[in-house]
């Protein structure tokens, strides 16, 4: 479409329906963030949301064009650029802004598309125009393959990040991996309603197994041959099978920890043709790898990296099936919230029936067999749960599409909180929490006790259920000794070794609580709103500590929600009581670190103490994180710092290193380097942050003091007073900002 003649040919194509799709997508995003569905709201979108809208638009325009149009290739190149280069997002904002109104100017849309294509078509010294415009004749999709080097990073930096992610993933599964589980195949592949169909498939294919070898595979099949064989095997399946194997096509940023030169497979429901289907983490039911990697440890860790990402996008999932095929050796695994386990490797030639039944079983399994979430129900595009209301009647709660929080981990409590509302209401006034706690009903007991003691600023428990537990999911199988990894064999850079955890009983539980019209903290719509939410969450913490005689111990951006102060008296409230400790049961054991790593206090990282003062320190780190990490997302620009000062808060060799990084950042002179990363729009919050730093980290005996004052009201009072002063001064500016925004919206209408 760099040729004006090509542009004139497509300019007359009707794209009304295509632009309605973009408009609808924009409205959905606005609703999920409680923003008015007006063009000015686009300025509050994160870069990734702009990226998604731009991709939706370009894909829709691509499909609207005749298959013979030369412009299709140009759009494919442009779509790929938007997906792979975050810097291109800013250039696409005018195009997206032109496409989102209810009645857009189609001529303007085409002009802006032509402008973008012309821009990317300009030749560079190393890349001629013809090369830039070459593209396959198919709908633009997310590129295949492993992560490329990100903007501003060298290949060495990318490898370092990959090594770190693999190391952290390994530490999760190191002490809870079982590789010789008895009864595994009987538990997952015997006695199912699809078992006979899998056997029928084996009967059809066994003629291809001659002299103990699958003839079309060869003795030690390579990745390409195995792929062709799997395609052929699927041709023998009945059409009514709802799933199939697909080549993984995932966004680059979602494949941390995964090495290059791999061929990855997944099982997902059928929808469209394999050649044009884009795979998303939320759609995957089974993950697999065809690999030439001979080291057991590397194979498993890389598979675990995939499992970790999948659990992140399917946080309420019970367990996950996974497999690797290396030559003629196959390994089958199940990952759950207590680790990973499998029956050991087997040879696909020596065990032909098992091979076919496993590969077919992954396609034929029901949602229950696959470990999918069967508690949440689906009604069209709406997910919902049923709870027992007052009087015993059943009530339906519709879930918000976007969770309040979730944690990137395999072995964990896997806490996931989702906003919910009654089906006949527009207000998301409930929080539904799913987790795998270690203790029996601890959170239920503490929430009830906090309510009895008059604690303010926390959610109220409505209902709770036990859905399943690890023992039930692992029933019928015998677990021997944990697998012992040989760290000297793989050559992977592991920084530290976590002690093997005791095998514990985790139960998946659901809690439903009142939380009037709320949003997660990181989705604040203005710095003022973020500030008042944190201030009121500190008030809630003070009430919990002084009235409830309890310590929260997990202050993070995920455990603070923004609420309507007119309804609750609080602009921010605390959630997640899994780690709360009662003060009358004695001091908290400092050896047991709790919290979210980047918000942990210095003395918690060093296992010295965990008191109310450490929680207040965590609130301070949350504030800095909102100003820097979330702040740059809020303004829609990239942090110009090559390496953020906050990077060392979650990426270091040990807890001790993280503590030293934070203590260095809190030094008066070095703290200016942290404040230097604030976007210009957050400049007004720097004085508050300096004040809070001096309150929390005074100098005593010539050194930074991180200890706990004996009178808690002194520290609470000083911190809240500092917040109140800034909030009071900012109120007038906020009213002025609101008038300007309303004027813009009125003019747009």
TrEMBL record:
Q: Which domain of life is it from?
A: Eukaryota
Taxonomy, top ranks, is: Eukaryota, Fungi, Dikarya, Ascomycota, Pezizomycotina
Native source species? Trichoderma citrinoviride
Alphabetized SUPFAM superfamilies for the sequence: Protein kinase-like (PK-like) (SSF56112)
Q: What is this protein called?
A: Fungal-type protein kinase domain-containing protein
Which segments carry the region annotation Disordered? 137-157, 491-519
Q: Taking every annotated instance into account, which residue ranges of this chain make up the domain Fungal-type protein kinase?
A: 263-627
